[in-house]
Amino acid sequence: MHFGKITFDVDQRGEVGLLTRNIKIQASEDAAQTYFGGHIMAMVTSKMFIEGVEVSRMGQHMELARYPFHWHLAGDVKGQYIRNTAIHDTFNRCVTVHGTHNLRVENNVTYNTVGHCFFLEDGIETGNQFVRNLAIQTKCHPTKKCVPTNLAANGENDYTYENRLAVRQASFSGKDTLLPSDNTVASFWITNPDNTFVDNVAAGSDENGFWLSLPEHPNGAFLGTDQSKNTWPRRTRIREFKGNVAHSNFDGFMFDRNINVDNTFGLAGNSYLPKENPADPNSKSLETVFENLVTYKNRNGGFWGRGELFVVKNLKTADNAIGFTMSSGAFGREAFTSVVMDSLFVGESENIGNPVTPEEKAYGRSLPKRLIPDFPIHGYQYYDYRVDVANSTFVNYQDNKQREAGALSWLLFTSSGVTTENTIKGAKYVNAKPVHFPQYDKRFDNDNRGGSAYRTLAIHDLDGTTTGFNNSYVLLHDGQFDVPATDDTCKIQPTWNASVCTGDVGRLYFRGVGPVAAPRLGGGLNPGAGPAQQIAAAAAAAAAPARPPEQPVAVVRNGKEFKITGNQSVVRSGTEVRVNTERREVALSLSEMNKDSWVVFELPGFANAASGTKQDSLDALRKASETSYFKDKDSLWVKLFVPADPEPPVRPTIMQASINVSR
Fold first, then answer.
1. In this structure, are strands 23-26 and 301-307 parallel, antiparallel, or unpaired?
2. 554-559 — which CB contacts under 8 Å span 24+ positions?
3. pLDDT tens for each residue of 101-119
4. How do residues 410-448 score in pLDDT, each as one tens digit?
5. How is the beta sheet containing 657-662 ordered, strand by strand?
6. pLDDT value for 535
7. Cα–Cα distances in Å, from 162 out to 146, 157, 372, 414, 416?
């Protein structure tokens, strides 16, 4: 259906692009069957100025350097442009900028095109300006379906989870696409951030709307050159990225999955962190600012990023499966991973879309994931390390008979990188359930199946606008994986699957001291590696000799037993717990806690502490203002005491108090 309204302050009026021009260039009609059309190329020393032209049946599928419009190794072309031009029904990209700088690409419309459409080829290209371009229906192949490499939920994949690496190898094979990444096609393919993208629209791409995919150094024609070696796209500040719109794609804005030399990429590939001097990794880190972005009706994510110091201002997101997710690349080494501020998240707007399936027709609107009609919708997903939300509004995130919902949640179901210092403040909820931690469902999961770290995530509500309690924490409380930080003083929110607790909450670790089992073979093998390396890694892991897993750990507090998964949990200061385990040795540690916070542990069957101050009685241990231990007849008692506030940036991996104990 055509929707022509601004709904809940999100402009979803359908774009109109004029495809006809008085000047028309097209290939013969039989090109529609052969995918072999004409191409227009500007090379070094030439000058090309394009305005008011219509091209169709252009480009040659699967052929390098045969694109409708192509600036090829042209160097600095300041003053040259392509504008007010229509590019439609083409077979190999739209506008390719290769080894070319300072080109103006403005007010163009594309429709029904194949491969990355607006294309920065090698990552050497800088100073180019993409302004007010409209890309509609960008496809992986003229007739065949995409074979994408993405984080689709398991329930919408047409292959088994165990076969995922073979599918990835097929995706990267080059059988049906010019580049491996064309199977995960983007309307705007950006390989160097030192370019301008303002007020562009990516509508209806098979996969990505905007994809920032950065090589370590420019590749292709520049691979190995001094110019390439001195160019660092992943450490280069983005020149300008604002006012862009991504809708009706699989993923709207994708700022992750940087390409390798062989043009493959990993799902968890390589961070973006610009530096004051890109050639010096130790120079000052710079913030990356994204302003006034709009993302709606995307079947998966509105915005996905990987890096540090992302500042997202005035984001508007609506009708996506997931509004925003941010992953860390430096794992807590910077002050923050991302902050989203002054933004708007709408779960369901007035735009009902085009209901097609029986479930959608019964529901009365299209659903983001048609193959998983009960997939929960979320506005903001917490994930890696320190991510913050400030002064933002969430609208229409309520459970109903079709699916559950929540304004805030976590990446389903992450296996790494969580912290207790993810924050929110200044939040406003309009017909919206603030939090939703869904029960594990393998259909909702992606390639992190089996991960458990999400169970230890906490959301720190700084001002009480989410929970009603100032300086409180939202913790998992689903009846299956409750955490020992929760007690009778916390408020249980059954519809959230969460508890709300005040006090100082930090991370608790139970690490084995001796040899442990090999890591679980998960979906995130060798982030950034190509398919051959990933499959080789999987084979090597499968062939490795098995070692016995560590014995499980359980924590008992006030008579209730809490299962500890992945050797970690969350705990509150002032907690006294009993630790039940068959392990011979355990390393107890606390992190992310305030000065003078403490936790007391009773360890039945344990006798020795490798450090700490020996106390003469249990009462003396409880009163101690330092890490201590006491041995009674049946148990070893340990008090972990935090002597100082954590130094910023606060990281879950920096232990503030630790002790090794043994039997």
1. unpaired
2. 554/579, 554/580, 554/581, 555/484, 555/579, 555/580, 556/580, 557/484, 557/487, 558/487, 558/488
3. 999 999 999 999 999 999 9
4. 998 877 667 899 999 999 999 999 999 999 898 998 755
5. 568-572, 505-511, 585-591, 657-662, 608-609
6. 43
7. 20, 12, 20, 18, 20
